[in-house]
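Annex B. Sample input.
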Amino acid sequence: MFTSFKELEAYVLGCGMKKRIALANAHDEPALSAVVNARRKGVVEGTLVGKKNEIIAMLHEMGESEKDYEIVDFDGEELDAAKLTVQLVREGKADIPMKGILQTSNFARAILNRETGLIPASGKRLAHSCVISADRHINVIYIVTFFKKLSFEKVGKRLCRCYNLISVGIR
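Annex B, continued. Sample output.
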């Protein structure tokens, strides 16, 4: 078991594995910065879905070239950006969907759509995970939420409850 982000990072870097992240509404500094940092460490490639000009400007501010990323120019509704990101994963053009600047409910709705989302046809569970560490805590906290045959409203409530617990616990 990992007890720090440093241990977790060393393990991931040691695996030599690289995944492609599709970032929905990538014109979001914190999310884009996370993808940039992971790319610099060699563990991800980035497909950035969102407002191309804003994404390019942010990449330049971070000292990155847009040529190192696949940018899908998209300036539409949040839900449609999330659906496009999920479609990239379904088509094998990306491995991991990531939420940028959009409502969690729209991101979850795209993922949980029975026809176009990522719900396994086998009926197996879909997992949402989060890893958290705070300076005052020694251990890394792993939170995994499993979803199986739940309505969208129930899933949304579970995600909100999870995020509320996290924010209350860290304050």
